[in-house]
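haha ok so turns out i had the wrong file open the whole time. this is the CORRECT one, sorry everyone. sequence first:
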Amino acid sequence: MSDFDAAKFKKKLKKKLKKNMTGKSINIKTTGPLYFLGGLGAAIYYVSTATDFWMGALGILKALVWPAFLVFDALKALAA
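then structure:
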């Protein structure tokens, strides 16, 4: 195995960061899967607590906008 060259690594890292920071935003690709898991969990919760078919259908629609409920409840709790 070859030895790790810290100076060479630092130089490559600076070059790569400079290339990525030229007016472009850095995208973090973890929000999509986290949002999907949150929506899936919300759908399972709302459908499992539904008492009839239409409440289950409403639960699926609620699962699509679950972040709005989360923010609303958080702001309501902060105001109290």
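The CA atoms of residues 10 and 16 lie 10 Å apart.
again sry for the mixup
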